[in-house]
Amino acid sequence: MNKEELLKAYQEKFGEKGQDIFFSPGRINVIGEHTDYNGGHVFPAAISLGIYGVYGPRKDNKITLYSGNVHGPVVEFDLDDETVEKDDRFWANYFKGMLTYLRQRKDGAKINHGFNLYVKANLPSGSGLSSSAAIEMLMGIILKEEFDLDIDRIALAKLGQKTENEFVGLNSGIMDQFACIMGKKDSAIFLDCNTMEYEYKPLKLGDYEIIIMSTNKQHTLASSAYNDRVAECHGALEKLQTKLKIKALGELDDHTFDEYSYLINDETELKRARHAVSENGRTLRATKAMEDNDLAKLGRLINASHISLHYDYEVTGKELDTLAETAWKQPGVLGARMIGGGFGGSAIAIVKKDQADAFKKNVGKVYRDRIGYDASFYDAEIVDGTKKI
């Protein structure tokens, strides 16, 4: 998507020239799924698929939003309107929540006039590549830049999580927002969600590349079993806390969890907690494997992540299982697994570059035969976080 097309679309919609263009990436997660809200480690990266925003100031206090993807009506509200949007305007809440929480800050008074915003995504909605976090971080950076707000990127990520948790009603962790806004070209972020300590690690895959496989099955996490998983993990944590001084499941290793698992005594909670603990361990080992250039081990751990998400966390489903399990059988594949919340969305595969075309064709055929419609495949370029362009 080029600047000229975006500026033309803005002018056609609002009848005036747009002022600035911003881009906010989606994210993939190499490994570490459903560990962020359990205080564990994650290993995400920002990708070249994302959401563009064209901003133009207004002289009144109206905010007008238009999505070039939704093609619904222009969503309009006053600057001080903090109500949650319903029905076909629901997508606007990811913008509105960020605006609301930034205006509640000390320097929020600087946001003292309205604006028009045209948004267009080449990131498939509901793809599990974190379009909602990309939107939140897009709004955060636009408001920071245009109104000269004194707020750093990590604080914006936390406000994005607050928007998701309190404004939208999804009990998600910090990973998605952090990855979208803190991304670094050709690197993944090794993040401890318990302490917020992080470091960038080069994604050195040699002759391999990451391919994103979209199920093209929509998933809306807020209405799915996502919040149930959060509650089940919390239930297990509370039982473990009767004997252990821990604040999060991510503090446990496999051995300690095994010794104290008798405290949980509930099949569902036991499986959920076991995934959180084992996935955290896999993330630590996978990051070390990549540093050691042991890509075969990295691939096996990625496969093991999918198995745990299937059997212990139960968030995969027929579509994601078909993609991952078919990918495992293809030549030149190191590993594959579902990413994101689950129940649809996307998976990733690490595939030898010279086998990529055959991989997409073969996996695509099996998927269509089994599921009845096509999957989509994207090559993932790893890029910088949300920015003005």
UniProtKB/TrEMBL annotation:
Annotated localization: Cytoplasm
Active-site annotation: D176 (proton acceptor)
Binding, ATP: S67, G126, S127, G128, L129, S130, S131, S132
Cross-referenced InterPro entries: Galactokinase (IPR000705), Galactokinase_bac (IPR022963), Galactokinase_CS (IPR019741), GalKase_N (IPR019539), GHMP_kinase_C_dom (IPR013750), GHMP_kinase_C_sf (IPR036554), GHMP_kinase_N_dom (IPR006204), GHMP_knse_ATP-bd_CS (IPR006203)
Family the entry assigns: Belongs to the GHMP kinase family. GalK subfamily.
Superkingdom of this protein's organism: Bacteria
Positions of substrate binding: E33, H34, T35, D36, Y226
Protein name (record): Galactokinase
Boundaries of every Galactokinase N-terminal domain copy: 8-56
Residues bound to Mg(2+): S132, E164
Principal location: cytoplasm
Keyword Lipoprotein applies: no
Pathway listed: Carbohydrate metabolism; galactose metabolism
One Gene Ontology cellular component annotation held by this UniProt entry: cytosol
